[in-house]
């Protein structure tokens, strides 16, 4: 569970324009010789375009002409686009310059589109219909309303939506007429359980009760009953985590996740008629997702294999893997079948190549790459590939991470380095394209994205090693990661910093406060610094896993003493190393006042602090211009205080 992990937009910032020559005066002051590769500014890296497939519970291909629905930030702000499956030509369906808009689905029988966006980062998403004439109609209006798309009814006459309109802390199920947009009540979620999935025939609803971060249950609701009531279907003893992947296309079975049978999540099938259960997908890693083609002929599974995604598409009629032509290297993702299952669209992503949309015609095995995400001003050879590297932490626990080594780094030419900390608690750093990381590495900074204990993807034992111990052993893993970098002969042992976003921002400032000699600098991006305030002010729509969050992090009513003990704000007097703080004014998770107070407290020590406040962002970046501004700020700060170049920052 990734409580404070920043969402997709921020992930792309960490995962995400003409080439600028390096400043000669700057290079003259550097102890390292000029790199053998071209250097690019942040704008060049962020002019790389992000492409996202439409939601997998809707229709990715249009009813009229098979155009593919995607989201893209090619204008600097995410909008919805229709992609021609032959030429790759894109038509903008929305044109927002401020609100990051995500494409959800085509309508079943015409070319209207469902999209969603919030109010400038406040996370209060509404569902909109993009009409045939281009107008946007908000079908889930209201203040403080948050809505999620769940799918369409089989006859295409209704849209299923989860909304907290009745109770800010609970998501009820509504059906909206596809013509009038009038809504009807389907299920009142009085216990504020998490919505898992709705069966394709609209009869079954899977709910999840998150009792703790290690223990959860699935409840099924027969929506066709006179009085639909959730029925527990995962009665068990001890700590076992259950979750819902999807229903089979014929609505005969629920496909669910469980770690009951080992360290990792497996996919199992629960027959809705008999209650019989059987294993569907097992591996020595977590099963990340399970989806089906529209008819159910093809099964698509994803395995989180050591920070990479391994996707398998199985033809259930033959039991064989679906034949595909030779494809570019990288991880497949977001597999979407056309309505007749004659073709598939998907993304391919790698450390040096951002996600592109690809199409394969299954009968002819014709492959077409429909997008070019990488800025043509960048030579891909100037970027660096990622490597999974492990080290032994302070107590011998093996810690995995993703290492990016700059070109030219050697024992004769050591470089400064950064430990990067992911969000969470419970997130994971994974291999994939990151404009921000590649920008830093291109300018001579090694980056090690550590997966400290408590990270997901490495088994339930590793995941729960930090429960009720956040800011303790997991923080010592980050300190040990810095020591590991110093042990490399190609890293400057006096120039190692720490950077992180969200929960990783907390770990960054905590490292400076509780291990003041561990790092030379820190960059906190949307990070928690006062756990008392943050846990007491979580958004109401987190109600479904509030108990699990408090079980893992501690209840602010009873664990205030520990929260103060691990909160950097209350120990700011120990911070002696330069700090940068990034904050969104609309952040509903980490309130601006937290960063305001943290910055003031560290400045009171006479320590250099740079504070960058974005008035139009929430918990993570949504606008390209802001991502560019932030990345250039990181580099300037590091050049000044870590590498020791440039003028003293104001």
Report on the architecture of this protein.
The chain is of the alpha+beta class. The longest helix is centred in the C-terminal third of the chain and has 18 residues, at 624-641. The radius of gyration is 24 Å and the shape is globular.
List the helices and strands and how they pair.
Blueprint (H helix, E strand, L loop, with lengths): L7 H8 L8 H6 L12 H5 L4 E3 L14 E5 L6 E5 L6 E3 L9 E5 L6 E5 L8 E5 L5 E3 L8 E6 L5 E10 L2 E8 L5 E5 L6 E5 L5 E7 L5 E7 L8 E2 L9 E6 L5 E6 L7 E6 L5 E5 L4 E7 L5 E8 L2 E8 L4 E2 L9 E7 L5 E8 L2 E9 L4 E4 L17 E6 L5 E7 L10 E7 L13 H8 L3 E5 L9 H4 L9 H15 L3 E11 L1 H12 L7 E4 L5 H6 L9 H8 L6 H7 L12 E6 L7 H12 L5 E6 L9 H18 L9
Parallel strand pairs: 31-32, 31-33, 33-34, 34-35, 35-36
Antiparallel strand pairs: 1-2, 2-3, 3-4, 5-6, 6-7, 7-8, 9-10, 10-11, 11-12, 13-14, 14-15, 15-16, 17-18, 18-19, 19-20, 21-22, 22-23, 23-24, 25-26, 26-27, 27-28, 29-30, 30-32
